[in-house]
């Protein structure tokens, strides 16, 4: 979760400081004049010498009331000038800082192609140049990462046998740890029901309800495991076609409702498509096994130089600070997201459902348009 602190406007800080400094300067000048005037009134010889030096017939004498009124007028004028100057200077600085802030937000959102305009020859201009250099290096690194990911996808056929073997072993472990134990518990409970049905019908009815719950849990586990038995790659299908086929099949087999919205996904490299498909499989598996949701929503689309995947459910959710954040499924999803230079955010709370959002910048497409050929 991202928390943003409300910032005080630097422009109004300049306005307040300008008004305060102008008032202090004016007050200091009038105080100096007041002290000098009081001194000269008590020393007429020095007053006469000043008149001779400046060639004036007489110095104007100001009584206390007029002096105070003149001070108020000068203070008002100085404050207004300070406010205007502070507003103008603060506004100019605020606009330049806003450009820097926008650049930082774009980099945080994964828009790596954004570049800052020339902000001048001062420190802010130098910071803008350094930010552009950082963004360019970051974009190139992500592009290299995605080229490597695509290259790995092309080599994936060579290691498919090993991957299938490993997946079979993992599924065997999960079948033993989850479904097999649940089936054993069902068998034991059923044997107990046989003994109780004649002696204690109420107790037997409770045991039957328990068997129904365990059978439903075992069925959910089996459906989630069957989801992992699907092909790990797209098998010459586009990402949109493979996702549509997957969700259609789940809709026919699952009690949980599933809705989806798929946008235009042209220009997505093969390596990114494979990873996104596996991330979606893992997210759906978690939702079907653990969320106890009535509805799961999937959105997959490209926008503003990014491809975005969003999987949301209305299930039980979980505590973001719990150990579930480091569970096998979520860790695997984060690793896949990192491999393609993306970011993943998880929004959840107990009883509030769960939403997983993945964003991947399509920097390879931008590089290809500029003449860079992927490896």
How many helices? The count is: 10
Under CATH at level 1, the class of the largest domain stands as Alpha Beta
Percent of residues in helices: 55-70%
- Rg measurement, Å: 36 Å
CATH H-level superfamily title of the largest domain = Histidine kinase-like ATPase, C-terminal domain
Q: Please name the CATH architecture of the largest domain.
A: 2-Layer Sandwich
Number of strands: 5
Low-confidence stretches: 1-7, 366-375
Number of domains: 2
- Mean pLDDT, to the nearest integer, reads 77
Which descriptor suits the 3D outline?
A: elongated
CATH topology of the largest domain: Heat Shock Protein 90
Main β-sheet, in a few words?
5 strands, mixed
C-alpha end-to-end distance: 36 Å
Strand order, sheet with most strands: 1-2-3-5-4
| Alpha-beta classification | alpha+beta
Query: What fraction strand?
Result: 5-15%
In N-to-C order, the SSE pattern is HHHHHHHEHEEHEEH
Could you give a short description of this structure?
With 375 residues, the chain is of the alpha+beta class. 65% of the residues lie in helices and 10% in strands.
Structure description:
Helices cover 65% and strands 10% of the residues. With 375 residues, the protein is α+β, with helices and mostly antiparallel strands. It has two domains: 10-144, no CATH class; 151-369, Heat Shock Protein 90 (2-Layer Sandwich), CATH 3.30.565.10. A hairpin with a 5-residue loop joins strand 4 and strand 5. Helix 8 runs antiparallel to helix 9. The longest helix is centred in the first third of the chain and has 45 residues, at 64-108. Mean pLDDT is 77; it is low at 1-7 and 366-375.
């Amino acid at each position: 979760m991202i928390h943003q602190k409300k910032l005080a406007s630097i422009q109004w800080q300049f306005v307040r400081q300008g008004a305060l400094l102008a008032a202090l300067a004016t007050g200091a000048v009038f105080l100096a004049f007041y002290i000098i005037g009081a001194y000269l009134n008590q020393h007429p010889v020095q007053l006469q010498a000043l008149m001779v030096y400046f060639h004036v017939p007489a110095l104007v004498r100001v009584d206390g009331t007029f002096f105070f009124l003149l001070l108020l007028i000068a203070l008002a004028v100085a404050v207004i000038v300070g406010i205007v100057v502070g507003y103008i200077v603060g506004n100019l600085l605020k606009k330049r800082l806003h450009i820097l802030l926008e650049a930082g937000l774009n980099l945080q959102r994964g828009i790596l192609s954004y570049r800052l305009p020339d902000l001048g020859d001062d420190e802010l201009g130098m910071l803008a140049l350094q930010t552009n250099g950082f963004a360019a290096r970051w974009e190139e690194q992500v592009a290299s990462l995605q080229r490597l990911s695509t290259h790995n996808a092309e080599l994936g056929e060579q290691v498919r046998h090993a991957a299938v073997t490993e997946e079979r072993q993992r599924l065997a472990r999960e079948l033993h740890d989850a479904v097999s134990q649940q089936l054993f518990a069902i068998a034991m409970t059923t044997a107990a029901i046989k003994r109780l049905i004649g002696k204690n019908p109420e107790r037997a009815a409770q045991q039957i309800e328990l068997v129904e719950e365990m059978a439903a849990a075992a069925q959910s586990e089996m459906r989630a495991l069957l989801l992992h038995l699907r092909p790990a790659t797209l098998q010459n299908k586009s990402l949109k076609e493979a996702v549509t086929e997957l969700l259609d099949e789940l809709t026919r087999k699952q009690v949980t409702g599933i809705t989806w919205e798929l946008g235009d996904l042209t220009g997505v490299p093969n390596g990114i498509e494979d990873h996104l498909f596996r991330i979606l499989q893992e997210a759906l598996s978690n939702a079907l096994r653990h969320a106890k949701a009535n509805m799961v929503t999937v959105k997959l689309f490209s926008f503003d130089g990014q491809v975005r995947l969003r999987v949301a459910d209305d299930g039980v959710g979980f505590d973001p600070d719990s150990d579930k954040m480091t569970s096998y499924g979520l860790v695997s999803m984060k690793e896949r997201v990192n491999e393609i230079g993306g970011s993943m955010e998880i929004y959840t709370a107990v009883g509030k459902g769960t939403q997983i959002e993945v964003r991947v910048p399509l920097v390879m497409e931008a590089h290809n348009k500029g003449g860079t050929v992927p490896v």
